Amino acid sequence: MQNESANRPLKNCVAVVTGASRGAGRGIAVELGAAGATVYVTGRSTREQPATTYAQLLALSDMQAVPGSIDDTADEVTRMGGHGIAVSCDHTREEEVVALFARVEKDAGRLDLLVNNAWGGHETFNGVFDAPFWEHPLSNWDAMFDRGVRNHLVAGRCAAPLMVRQKKGLVLTTTFWDRDHYLRGNLFYDLAKAAMTRLSFGMAQDLRPHNVASIAVSPGWMRTEFVLAGHKTDEAHWHEQPALARTESPRYLGRAVAALAGDPKVMEKSGEVLRVADLAREYGFTDIDGRQVEAFEM
What we know:
By secondary structure, the protein is α/β, with parallel strands linked by helices. It has helices spanning 2-7, 23-34, 55-61, 70-79, 94-108, 139-166, 187-207, 225-230, 250-261, 276-283, and strands spanning 14-17, 38-43, 83-88, 113-116, 169-174, 212-218, 273-275.
């Protein structure tokens, strides 16, 4: 019994990970599964119906189809030792988000962890990241705010009442933060990530009296499927690309999330924005290749 608790420290945790078909969300869901959690894996991409809004990015990456699905991720969560449950949800549609959390409450009777990760910024990416703000298309605003920041707010509004009633819970927001430096070259991205960080901070203030924590977590440069495709490589061969030397796998972020979810003193960190590299040193975890990857700094 003691060994089971050590190997599956989150076996009693019920989590929702939004935008978990691929990338950061998938890495987080898989690591929560490895810790024994029940994970509701949400997003729009299913095996039967891949997402249809990535045509521009697919063309830039020379990819034929969007990789990953919520079904694939849920299966991997279960294979790793947790319980993965795929739920199709367009997080831009409030009624679908409301239905998602109603299902969680009906099925599990509780919610211990929400990972706000659904993000629309990739849908309008035109291959240009570094440019003055007047040269970036306004469509980036809609993608990053209406289908990014708003997604986090809507999910948070639905999750909060469940956590407040049980007087316990954790909301984690994936963001990017480099100690208040300007993310030069993309004002829209800088604004969106700053808004997510501030959203997490604001939620922490309202949730604190109810013993519910809210924390923003910032990974470094992750080797997502799109990053690997953009460098014409894959996870098995990325070491051959010198440009990717500073990258980390999405599961490094996942291990940070699992560590925070299992920390009985997590309320002490509520309202903060924390870097994965710093959490790795604090909690003693490594990336999947055994490295403790240094923080990515601008």
